[in-house]
Prior knowledge:
This protein is an alpha+beta fold. It has helices at about 5-45, 210-260; strands spanning about 55, 60, 65-70, 80-85, 95-100, 105-120, 125-135, 145-155, 160-165, 165-170, 175-180, 190-195, 280, 290.
Amino acid sequence: MDQDPAAAAADVREARLMVNCLRANAVRIGAVLSGPVLAVALSGPAVAAAGIGLEPTQAPRGAGIQLTFELPQERPDAHTTEVRLDLPADLPIAEVYPMSVDDWAPRIINRTLPEPLPGLHGGLMTEATESIIWQLVAPPAAEPAPVLLTVSVGPLPDADRIDFAVTQTYSDGTVVRWGGPDAQRPGPVLALGPADPAAAGHGAQHGGPAPAAAQDPPAQAAAAGSDDAAGTGMGLLLAGLAGGAAIGAAVVWWRSRRHRSVPADPTGAGTADEEGELAVTGGTTPWRLTEQ
């Protein structure tokens, strides 16, 4: 059965509309899928908000190590004049000693223990450090740098973590509380892992640096997180490409079906719509859809 040229032109316009709709949907899908991919690719490692740095962040139970606290200088027209470190009362540490730091003078506040604790060098300790207070004893630098304070502690308690509280006082009277019951900001945390028998009686028991194994897990976790993020981004990208390929295949199939279903024009007359998208020739030549 022959098809009226006007109806054929209407079919062409309908086909063009369908193609445009498929293209628009493909663009939307690509935008939705590419957004998370770009976010993962451009963000890189997560950037932590300003806080107190702690090195190391993990150590074995029972060890003796050196902890370095790094306090930011956040006041544009003031500098840090005092730092107070409070240790948790429910996790006493037998020996806590502030290490020598230029321009800062420490003062130790002790408390009596309800039960003696074994020290790093043998014997029992009847007192434990409750707090350390550092005072700035030198003129401030023209451009104040972060404050670095080092403490030797041990033996570390049998617990999962130690939460420290730090109070930072500026020259203009501003007080910032990191951790503790009245915290304004999160305080530094030391994660504790299983005891390391190989470290017993060696430098770590005397305030030396934490064993390398105790410092590896955070780096491994960061690397694993980066790999997971990269894998997620690649999965989203492949999903977007697959969706685009499926839409393209649907368009090709629909066009080929239209070519096969449009009959020849026995009158030999040709017609075209307003946009010149339909070309029809006489004889046995089939209808052609020409997209511009």
